[in-house]
Amino acid sequence: MSDRQEILDCLTRFCRGMDRFDRDLFLSAFHPDAEIAAGPFVGSAAGCWDWAVPMHRAGQVLTHHLLLNHSADIAGDTAHAETYYQFAARNHPFAPDGEETVMLAGGRYIDRLERRDGAWRIALRTNLIEWSCLQPSLPLPFGDVPDIGDNGVTARDRSDPSYARPLLNRRAPRSP
């Protein structure tokens, strides 16, 4: 069970690293000699970072890489995993009318992971993109609450509230 949890933790580091633009966290999910095949990109983990992050910065206000069903066949220090995912992105308003859109996509990460020096990391990843759609964006809820951002706001770096230690509440108690 601990191997399964460590493998899932590894996959989560990939997602969080990409969504927070945390290069070190992203790369910690991969062995240095890992290979990735994702969309048009085929190459190293560092190369994937160099390709994907500018694309996400230019096109999207935020991204969510979500892990869903997960299975792992573990044999000693090698594991083969299949993890369903959904990807959601709030896109910049590039349309002539200035409207934001939301892109949704889904598929499966097919990974070979290896335990080296006691750490599970991805050695090979194939990303199977199986569906996508584009939807109009709606205003975020509760945008009119004056102190809504006092506990922090979404950021694509280490200023994001998820990095705060200790996590504190700076909003006054209330029941609307």
Low-confidence stretches: none
Instruction: List the secondary-structure elements in sequence, H or E.
Output: HHEEHEEEE
Largest sheet features: 6 strands, mixed
| N-C termini distance | 43 Å
Report the CATH topology name.
Nuclear Transport Factor 2, Chain: A
How many structural units, i.e. domains? 1
Rg to the nearest angstrom?
18 Å
Annotation, overall tally of beta strands: 6
Strand content: 35-45%
State the assembly state of the protein chains.
Answer: single chain
Global morphology:
globular
Spatial strand arrangement across the major sheet: 2-1-6-5-4-3
Structural class: alpha+beta
Domain SnoaL-like: 2-126
Region (Disordered): 151-176
Organism: Novosphingobium piscinae
Protein name: Nuclear transport factor 2 family protein
Describe this structure as you would to a colleague:
With 176 residues, the protein is α+β, with helices and mostly antiparallel strands. 22% of the residues lie in helices and 43% in strands. A six-stranded mixed beta sheet has the order 2-1-6-5-4-3. It is globular. The termini are far apart. The model has no long low-confidence stretch (mean pLDDT 95).
